[in-house]
Amino acid sequence: MKRSLDKILGAFLVLLMAIMVIAVLWQVFSRYIMQSPSSITEELARYLLIWIGILGAAYAAGQQEHLSINLLEEKLNPQNRKRLRIGINLLIIFFCITVLMIGGGNLVYVSYDLGQLSAALEVPLYIVYMVLPLSGLLIIIYKINEILNPQKYLV
């Protein structure tokens, strides 16, 4: 399951990045060549950058490429190292539930309830904010997978 999730998420991130590059190139072309900058591409690039950054963090967490300080882990025996990893993963899951899922879910709900729209694209802002609970869910899936299959992740 992890491999298919990695492929889907990786392909989606590549697609978002390609769309963002095209939007920025069009923005530069329309600003300097046509002398009429497009406001839509600027806002689109901004929202795509938000999605790429937050979903990219979820992808990095799944690949064990996130930022970490492992001074303590190197000094522990394998059994205690496994316990430490499980404890860290439980803390990450707790953070994802409270901040990304609940907090992000509340932000999505409030934006939906107020009917907020973006200025140029007129896209509902709850769609933009939906990346928070989505990435929280992805990180939780990755961390549960790591807890259930610790031998794959221990160095």
UniProtKB/TrEMBL annotation:
Pfam families per the UniProt record, alphabetical: DctQ
Q: Does the keyword Membrane apply?
A: yes
Which compartments does it reside in? Cell inner membrane
Q: What is its main location?
A: membrane
Q: Which residues form the Tripartite ATP-independent periplasmic transporters DctQ component domain?
A: 20-149
What does the UniProt keyword field contain? Cell inner membrane, Cell membrane, Membrane, Transmembrane, Transmembrane helix, Transport
Q: Which residues cross the membrane?
A: 9-29, 44-62, 83-103, 123-142
Keyword field contains NAD? no
Kindly give the membrane topology term recorded for this protein. Multi-pass membrane protein
Which family does the record claim for this protein?
A: Belongs to the TRAP transporter small permease family.
**PANTHER family named in the record:** 2,3-DIKETO-L-GULONATE TRAP TRANSPORTER SMALL PERMEASE PROTEIN YIAM
Q: By what name is this protein known?
A: TRAP transporter small permease
